[in-house]
Amino acid sequence: MAEGKEAATVEAFGADLRAHRGRTTQIDSVSIDMSPAFIRGVTDRLPNAQITFDEFHVIAHTSEAIDKMRRLEQKLDPSLKGLRWVLLNRWCSNVLRSKVEPMKEVAEMIRTHLEGILAWVSSRQTNGFLAAINGLFQAAKRKARGYRRFRTIRTVIVMIAGKRDFSCVNP
Q1: Once rounded to an integer, what is the mean pLDDT over residues 120-124?
Q2: Rounded to whole angstroms, what are the CA distances from 20 to 1, 13, 43, 48, 109?
Q3: 25: Cβ–Cβ under 8 A, 6 or more apart, which residues?
Q4: Residue 105 and residue 86: Cα distance in Å, rounded?
């Protein structure tokens, strides 16, 4: 273990390893983030180590890029709907020619619902609020376990979602 986030950190780790009778040549695998400093440190100081970049960091970088694109998209002029249609359709075509099967399903879904997806650019409508309420309803259904009648489940939903104050009835 060594403190720091530079290439020298790997050297400090190597020095500590040698002080405890280890050899840096014994290390055959390391998992690091994509920091150029760590990559250089491992390449320079751990000659037999295979570098592995874990999927978390790859997904984090991808998510960050998608988020940046989402913010850029929000700033685009709504009148550029034709350009959006062309770019999204081109993306779908490229994905459908790829061998990335799960993304092909997404591309097909986008093509099927393209008009509705592009409509968001001008309407900015979202059903996030309804999805949150539905989460409350699902929790209510779990709390009402065993009850079959809609009326009973509805009562539990109202008690949860309605945030009723029953302190006057039962302090």
Answers
A1: 79
A2: 12, 11, 22, 19, 57
A3: 47, 48
A4: 19
